[in-house]
Amino acid sequence: MRIVLVGPPGAGKGTQAAYLAKNLAIPHISTGDLFRANISQGTPLGVEAKSYMDAGNLVPDSVTIGMAEDRMEQADAVEGFLLDGFPRNLGQAEALDAFLQTKGLKLDAVLDLEVPEDEVVKRIAGRRICRKDSSHVFHVEYNKPQTEGVCDACGGELYQREDDREDTVRKRLEVYHSETEPIIDYYKAQDLVVTIPALGKVAEVTQRAMDALERGE
To answer: Organism's domain of life (predicted)?
Structure first.
């Protein structure tokens, strides 16, 4: 299967993508992984992307599209893939369609993880990260530390990242609404969108998505 996963920040796309890709036995292709792999390997696209990033500029769509196309042509993606974070806007969606058409392929589904905006803000703004080890993540409501402000694992100080502040989260949501949400209408016109309520336990959301795919919704 060839699937695109979309949803606002905080919808749990990365977590769901990993579970779904495993269940469907297809590679999980995320924009973040594409950038890290290309930059660490020093590919021409990675070098180009790094030059923009080092200058504090946005990486052009052409570079992101090139990385995604290269990855989709790798052997493990021949029978299918799950895209997470790509396409991010209409231009990228159109480029993806054009690329697949040259291969005689098409998408099977676009899974739209639906989460109320207030819940998105609560999920992200409530995160607290350990200063000693950023892999230790807590939440003021959903995963409280035993002692407020102190990491259970190592005793480090817990803090809120700038990216997780409520005003920043709301700005990210504005960008999502203006840039990424339009691709949902684009794919609805192709009858590809399957809306998945993304509230509840991770396993429940994964099962909803798998059930929808099996029904061919």
So the answer is: Bacteria
Question: In whole angstroms, what is the distance from residue 29 CA to residue 182 CA?
Answer: 21
13 flagged as catalytic: yes
| Three-state SS at 147 | strand
Residues in the chain: 217
Active site residue: 161, 165, 171, 188, which one? 161
Flag whether 137 is marked binding: yes
Ordered by where they begin, the domains of the chain are 2-115+179-215 (3.40.50.300)
Q: Can you give the C-alpha Rg of the chain in angstroms?
A: 18
Clarify whether 131 is annotated catalytic.
no
Closest Cα partner for 169 from 214, 119, 210? 119
Q: Measured between alpha carbons, how far is 78 from 205 in angstroms, rounded to an integer?
A: 27
**DSSP characters for 16-58?**
HHHHHHHHHT--EEEHHHHHHHHHHHT-HHHHHHHHHHHTT-P
With contact defined as beta carbons under 8 Å apart, do 111 and 17 qualify? no
Render pLDDT for 38-69 as a digit per residue (tens, 0 to 9): 999 999 999 999 999 999 998 999 999 999 99
**Any known ligand binding at 207?**
no
Q: Do the Cβ atoms of 46 and 38 come closer than 8 Å?
A: yes
State yes or no: 71 annotated in a binding site: no
Tens digit of each residue's pLDDT (9 = 90 or more) over 196-208: 999 989 999 999 9
Six-digit token string for 82: 């799950």
Catalytic residue among 2, 71, 122, 127: 127
Known binding residue 11? Answer is yes
